[in-house]
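re: ur msg from earlier - yeah i can do the protoporphyrin IX containing FE complex, just paste it... oh wait u already did. ok heres what im feeding in:
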Amino acid sequence: MVRRVLAVVAAMALFSAVPAAAQDSLCKRLGGGDAISTVVKSFLTKMRKDDPDKLGRFWLFRGSGGVAREEQLIVDFVQSATGCDRLYDGRDMRSTHKGMGLSSADWDRTVGLLRATLDEYKVPAELQTEVIDLVGTTRSAIVECEESTFGCP
Ligand code: HEM
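and the outut:
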């Protein structure tokens, strides 16, 4: 009997250690690389179509080739950051966004568009939190001023 109890306790200890280590990647839980690509592209379309005095200002005079390249790099970045088997070979977030004058208002609007996209694709709330937290890790490299205006003064 004692031996059986010990065996059960040992099994419980073993299994309670499993979930964190063996949990599927965020990539897999979001439905894989193709699903991520679809959602990211939809989100970026919203960014580009935003008001020209808000986020849309960045895409007013951009050539289609450059925009397509940027879109692919952002898909690669998100796939790589969520644990898909994907290489991101673009620039780091600080040098990429340096001098764009992104404010906290720009950031909050971006997160709002991201949430709207995740809602649209019915991504469950707990996965949305993980995605927003992950994207949030880039904030300090991207936002250049804590202003409530779009753009930094
Ligand atoms: C806060 C709002 C943001 C705006 C307005 C914005 C805008 C831009 C623009 C205009 C470019 C093109 C730059 C160029 O061609 O030189 C770009 C590139 C990029 N952005 Fe953002 N961005 C934002 C946030 C983010 C976030 C949160 C991420 C990552 C999670 C991100 C990832 C990237 C990547 C990977 C590139 C391509 C890097 C490369 O060209 O090597 N951006 N962004």
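cool cool. Residues 55, 58, 66, 70, 73-74, 77, 90-91, 96-97, 102, 106-107, 110, 135, 138, 142 surround protoporphyrin IX containing FE (CB under 6 Å). ping me if u need the other ligands too
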